[in-house]
Records
---
Amino acid sequence: MIFMSLALGMLLYSVPQLDIGGGFTLPTVFGALWICFALLIIAAHLHELLGVDEETRQEIVRVKRMKRWRMEQRLQGKKMLDLRK
């Protein structure tokens, strides 16, 4: 939350000072790229804060548990059912 706030504050402070709109010049390209990177950083922080990947993380944990269980079954010599059929 702190880093996202810092990035947002940095963006709000710098946008009025960037030279944008002066044609296709080096300062304009730099300003546009700088704003794009700042927005990308803010979007990444929002993505993490909103927990968009929570379902994916839970699925990965479930798959790892199943793999661990299968390995334990193999080591114990138990016959497993093939769930892929």
---
Amino acid sequence: MAQPDKKLDKFKSAVLKDAQEQREKILEEINNFRNTEMEKAEEDILHETYIMIQNEITAIKNQQSRKISLAELDGRRKLLKLREEITDKVFKETAARILDFSKTAEYITLICESTKTSCNLLPEGDIIIQVKKSDLAHAEKLIAASSRTATVEENADIVLGGVIIINRDKGLVINETLDLKLMSQKDWYTGSSGLTLEL
């Protein structure tokens, strides 16, 4: 082989070696760039996925919270309705028993005693004794129990029984009706019956 051929081969070999090194360097840079971009893209995707998952979790929690709140509200409504039904039933049954009681001799004694006690609390003067319609039959006994000049009249608001004593001259009224006494027991019953609205 001639000297120029050797030099040419050497030059060719050096150029090829240099080109090979440049190629490998470029490939390494491309791989590094690709790896960096892939890692960055993976991090971005992971971050976006994390945010999406967190948003989904929050949405699910909110949805479940709304469902629970609606269920609690519905439960409270049902419990309130049931409590009202039970209370109404108890008080209707009690009112029926009071009406039965108002047909007894003990009831007549009770309204006469209520009249006497109430009249003792009022200042002197004429009085009006108000009763339910069926108690007008006991007018004489009630007047006698009052020990005063009295008139007995019907009061359509009295359903269960008892008396309302009125001293118009002094503007005083004493309500001893069984209707009022039963109604005043409703608050007590609601508070002490154990029919609370706690869930």
---
Amino acid sequence: MAPLDSTYPTIGSDRSTSSNSGGTARLGATLHVKGEITGNEDLAIDGSVEGLVHLEDRKLTVGPSAKLTADVIAREVVVYGNVKGNLRARDRIEIKKDGSVVGDLTTARIMIEDGAYFKGSIEIDKAGEASDSDTKSYTRASRATASAD
């Protein structure tokens, strides 16, 4: 019998799109997640997520059909769809021309294309590093702020 990796595709992962170990996971357009997503692989979301997306050292891509009502913590965030929540990226945040973000951004580098929608504040974090306690208080504070609206 052939090894599992060569015979069967890995569900939710496309190992050919990333040179880093772990590949890129994909959350399809018809999927809805309520809760917390954590992991150590790049993630592309095309469905909807409510809660928290925590990919500390990885890239999150919010696809054109995606709807996130979530706080995000990642190395890099690229938004083509809609996000309501705070984004914290150690490296950079990109909001593409049809992307929409309502929430506060904290990152070392930011790019907002013409035509993108953004409402919130931007904090440039030159160090690009936050301690665990800073990260936890950030998500707690953002949930408190979100529930106060």
---
Amino acid sequence: MATSETEIVVEDPTAPAPDSPVIVHTRSVDAVVSALLFLLAVVLCYDNWRTGIGWSPVGPEPGYFPFYLGVLLAAASLYGIFNALIGGAGASEPFVTRDQLWRVMQVFVPTLVFCLLTQWLGIYVASFLLTAGFMRVIGLIKWWVSLLTAFLFCLVMFITFDIAFDVIMPKGPLEAFFGY
């Protein structure tokens, strides 16, 4: 039986360009994240030291175990900072390029707006806008398909959560208009 060794490669026309300028390198991200984790560890250690890290007659005080976990986190963070600054493996590799950052922001910004709109429009209207917008702008799907899919998705979610399971979801003016 003969096997075919032909490989089909499909190019993604929206893939980031390989020559896109680097926004930030891996070394910088490693150093910043390690420094932020170190600061978090210091805050955790201080707070747990304040609540008690010793032994009482009945056992360890409330901050005993969290304090030492904070110490371990601080030590690991210092190692991360040292490794990033001294030049660990892959230190000059790009972390994100301009094209990659643009693609991430295409998802992050609408999702952030969705979270904010949920407070005023309710979760179903905000979900409708997010779903239809993603389908049309990022997926390049026809408007009528995007709108119909978003409407059906939100309708199914409304029936599932509000009617079938009676879960309290954030409501907006549209649901108030219909008495929900």
